[in-house]
Amino acid sequence: MAIPYEVKLLIAIYVILWTRADPVMCQTYESSVAAKHEQWMSQYGRSYADEAEKEKRFKIFMENFEYIEKFNNAENKSYKLGLNQFSDLTEQEFMASYTGLKIPTTPSTVITTLNLSNVPTSLDWREQGAVTAVKDQSPCGACWAFSVVAAVEGIVQIKTKNLMSLSEQQLVDCVSGKEGCWGGFMNDAFNYIIRNKGICTETDYPFQHVKGTCNKDKEAAPAAQITGFQKVPPNNEQQLLQAVAMQPVTVAIFIDKNFSAYKSGIYDGPCQPTSKHAVAIVGYGTSEDGITKYWLIKNSWGGDWGEGGYMKLRREVPDQPQGVCGVNKEAYYPTIN
Ligand SMILES: *[C@@H]1O[C@H](CO)[C@@H](O)[C@H](O)[C@H]1NC(C)=O
Ligand SMILES: *[C@@H]1O[C@H](CO)[C@@H](O)[C@H](O)[C@H]1NC(C)=O
Ligand SMILES: *[C@@H]1O[C@H](CO)[C@@H](O)[C@H](O)[C@H]1NC(C)=O
């Protein structure tokens, strides 16, 4: 006896629904995030002391994961967020260990107005060979050292044609005060390099992720030197543009949770002034559609963060002289006579 057409159809629908629905039905939402967490742990080589710690970290991971998914789905933004090495940290933990910039209350820096007339429409100092590979400060609040070193590496290459990776550890160990991994001032770093008549290479004085004792022998044999530094006239984007047209520039920037999870695109905030961070601007450009202008930011959170360690940060926002995330407020560049 032939099976009636209707019955065949019902069986077919049942089979399709059954095979399709099954994997979804046996996996709860939480277990799928748990699997993501496991995968993330192996990708970033993370392990936890015990089950209680793992449970706690998983909860934070799940919150961060949900935040990222929600942001990427709902927000009509020019940038995307993504998982990275910070995804099992709370915002407070993250800010405590991966930033570290202090701003002097009594500025004593020289500010010179720049008068460059022919500033190119776009520029990438990486293409000029003036930028070393992205570094990783973690977990040490020494952004102040990394951003200053990036600017020094830039001017040294521009003046000597020799790109040298220079030592953040020397600044962490030798710049006086309680700075080190607990945050520091960019101007103290410049003043130290000038006083010491130079800074060692990264290979000679490599990064240790903690503050140690200043190595006086290495300190006495620096590889590259600068003779001065200047502050860019603040809250003036044209001045910052002229400075970046000359060389990589170190800047202070306000950052928040969105900034820490940045994955790609042109970042335009909003930036809560949760914490201060320092990065280097190593170029600028305009989006492919020719509409949105951006700074090219070199960060010190390794190559997994953002676009291979870099961020595009929106520039030329009307009525925002301080710039997106306050980027136009504190900018410095080293000089070599
Ligand atoms: C998203 O932004 C684009 C460009 O600004 C705009 O055309 C579009 O209407 C926006 N969509 C929503 C859902 O807000
Ligand atoms: C730019 O011009 C101003 C005013 O003429 C001058 O004071 C300043 O030194 C100039 N800056 C540079 C870098 O030449
Ligand atoms: C992240 O961006 C969203 C959307 O633009 C914003 O509403 C939120 O306040 C930002 N989060 C933080 C922590 O600044």
UniProtKB/TrEMBL annotation:
Transmembrane segments: none annotated. Residues 37-94 form the Cathepsin propeptide inhibitor domain. InterPro entries: Papain-like_cys_pep_sf (IPR038765), Pept_asp_AS (IPR025661), Pept_cys_AS (IPR000169), Peptidase_C1A (IPR013128), Peptidase_C1A_C (IPR000668), Peptidase_C1A_papain-like (IPR039417), Prot_inhib_I29 (IPR013201). Keywords: Disulfide bond, Glycoprotein, Hydrolase, Protease, Signal, Thiol protease. Residues 1-26 form the signal peptide. It comes from the Eukaryota. One of its GO terms (molecular function) is cysteine-type peptidase activity. Pfam families: Inhibitor_I29 (PF08246), Peptidase_C1 (PF00112). GO terms for biological process: proteolysis. Residues 119-335 form the Peptidase C1A papain C-terminal domain. Belongs to the peptidase C1 family. This is Uncharacterized protein. It comes from Clitoria ternatea (Butterfly pea).
